[in-house]
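hey so i finally got around to running both of the ones u sent me last week. sorry it took forever, my laptop kept dying halfway thru and i had to restart like 3 times lol. anyway pasting them below in the order u listed, first the sequence line then the structure token line for each. didnt double check formatting much so if smth looks off just lmk and ill redo it

first one:
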Amino acid sequence: MTAGEREVRCFAWAPDSASLVIVTTDATEYDAVFGPANVWEISIDGGLPRHVAHFRTAPSPLVIVDTGTGPVVAARVDGHREDPADSIWIVPLAGGEPRNLLPTVTGIVEEIFSLPGSENRVGARIVERTHGRLYSVDVVSGELQALTPRALGERGSVVHGVSISADGRRVAVIWTDATTPEEVFLGDVESQATPLTSFGAAFQGRLQPAEHVSWMSDGVEIEGLLTCPAGFQEGRRFPLIVEIHGGPSWQWEDRVMLNWHDWAQMLASRGYAVLLPNPRGSTAYGREFQQLLQNDVGGGESRDLVTGALAMVEQGIADPERLGIAGWSWGGYLTAWTITQTDIFSAAIMGAGLSNMVSEHGQGDIPSANLLYYPGQPYDHLDAYWASSPIRYVSAVRTPTLILHGDEDARVHPAQGMEYFRALKTRGVPVRFVRYPREKHGIDERAHQIDLMKRIIDWLERYLGTAVNR
């Protein structure tokens, strides 16, 4: 059905089932999704495709909605630097200029899907600040109607697995909060819901709740989730770990943190308080908040982490002598960067992090993502990339640092960890570099996950101690 110098990224059926609507990019590599893409309609009988629309970045997925004035293509996509928050963009299937259907929504559209039993509407999972909820969206007016069962919409997050009944009245979702591992819930739209599974029964009563906290940083309000340690007592200070999310276009949500990548519950069970900040540039807080990262990589977002840690000290929760910082991917980058800017942290964990933004642009598999945050290519803006590189300021680092990396990571090449390791070792800073064979950007093998978590605990106990022994 398709041919030529293009890559098909996704497709959807037209309402009459006589054609497919496809998204294509000119290049085949994954990096191409951060660049321009085209939407086409093509008959299932073959023939030449008909051009529908051009997008600044590649949309995915598509949902085709039949309206009274003709079919409309609804797509989850962003508007590049000018409108970076993922939203629902629409364009008539007959062709035209795409437009953002939800320009004023303060949140990020994580998923869109067909909505049975509804006309002119599409379903969407939208994360607003730290909560993921379901909505029915009118593709003509942009009006939102809540779909999340009421008891699930007031706390926690719908994370995925959305399924709507044929009449549109019942909804099944996978839902979680800080103390509830992911479970399948079934309920009526905007009403009650019942859990159908009990996968997390073994953790009942063993997990620590998360508290929403906020603080001011350079006049900007920053929000985060605070998980207090097991055995927490008012008036007693505990070691605090600031764990930074990746992305940077992502966010921490009110959900369970219980795996090799999300360490809050693991650390809380060992006596650590854990702060999960959503610094400027995070998604789910609106376009303007996300744009604060542009042309300021490592700047304000790093200060948001430091002010967050100090806010927990001011509140009497954190021991100022036992502060740690950690993260994976962009969180690893911000860890490496922040310890070049301050010495308040006594331990650091850099997971799959970037240390040299110039060399990283030529090593990683998504260099075009940098164009969302920098003014252009490093070949034209070398100073901007170098100015935000942790390796440039590495001589200021005093913080003992554990570096973790997958040996086959194409997203952030392990050479990034090697550069930072060699610099710290040369300068006499306590450092350890662990590379996991066969692993990519995520750590998949269970033995490696267990080893990674043990090393994290050992490193923190070595340099911060625990609530038990201090």
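and the second one:
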Amino acid sequence: MRLERLIFFRNILKDPLVEQYLRLYDLSRKPAASFAELADVYCLFMGTMLEELSRLGNCWSGDGWTCLLVERILADENLFSLKAEKLGREGLGTDFLEIAAQDLQLLEKLGRLTWAELTKQIIAKGKTEASSLPSWNLPSLQTGKQGAEGIKSQLYRHFFGEASWAQAVELLAQYYHQQGVGLYGKYYAFQWTGDDGDEERFSPVLNRDPITFESMFEYQDEHALVIRNTEQFLAGLPANNVLLYGDRGTGKSSTVKALVNRFGPRGLRLIEISKSQLLDLQKIMAQLKDRGLKYIIYIDDLSFAEQDSQYAALKAVLEGGLSLTPPNILIYATSNRRHLLPEKFGDKDVTGMSYDEVRFMDTLQEKLSLADRFGMTVTFVSPDQKKYLAIVEQMAARRGLEIEQEELRKRALLWELHQNSRSPRTARQFLDALQGELGLQQLKEQEGIS
């Protein structure tokens, strides 16, 4: 198959699954290899294939081996894919595209060696039936999975079709530019893990919160401000770092999470860091600045004590440091404190008569300056009773709960009183309890239990 001639996609040959496949393929072509030996290697490879296919997030048409090889092409970080991610098809020279097309032509020969083709060679060794080598193309592996979407579905159709893989090179470059490559092409949200031995890395969020703006109610104006700023950012237009400030439980964090669920397919990625990791901001930005996607660094529940060292690190990144923030990075933070630092009643007294500080106003300005550097502050206020009940009713309707409106409102107000809180979070927690109660009651009725 001349795979040693691969240039850009050579790293695919080091993938454990591909190494297993090539070992099985090479063994099947050796005259001295016995059927028993081949069957043992095949079953080992079969187990790996089933594990890989079960973890695949979408369904496919055609052979599972072809699908897994295509997935490795989409994820491979190499000179071509990284350049395409950053510059797009238009930024690539014809020479790059030609070399990548040659690589795809070589990989096509490997991808077309489906289960049927491979087992034909193995079975010939033992003069046995094909049923003795079960297929990895099990229908149950695709149960409950959705098909690939957008440009990825176009690539799937091409690679599983009759056309040459080399003809997909421009579409592949477009995919890298839109969706990213490597982990950034596969996942939308990450957490900074800091130093892991000698490695500093991001860990993908495997079970991402599926929250959407459509499932949040009564804060449309606040959402619109954040959405518009993010769309400007994705379009390459000027945009601001954002501080989402307000009362607890009003949906500040959910707003940020909903952004990546809406704009992830358009190249937005979310990087969550904790306050204690703010000193790593320069390291984080150094790893992201040359990538082609857009990144929001997200800090939840941000606030500082008087002498926090992280305060200066964030302040320098927002504005004022020697290094400019890369144009593909913004910082979004949530906080219950308007100015992020503790404020005292003494700070309100501008007479200057009773302070230990010689330059009291300078200190006050210092406390106000960090929040100002975000550029945009979006305020989330706890709902009044009317708004709270409207949120409860809309959430209940979305869940399809069967309960009289007056009973729903009465119980929602009672829950609010017991929780000593009125917010969208309070409404959701009330409905979780109510939905569980109604569901349990229905189960007992079905079983005839009083």
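quick thing i noticed on the 2nd:
Residues 54 and 140 are 9 Å apart (CA to CA).
anyway thats it, ttyl
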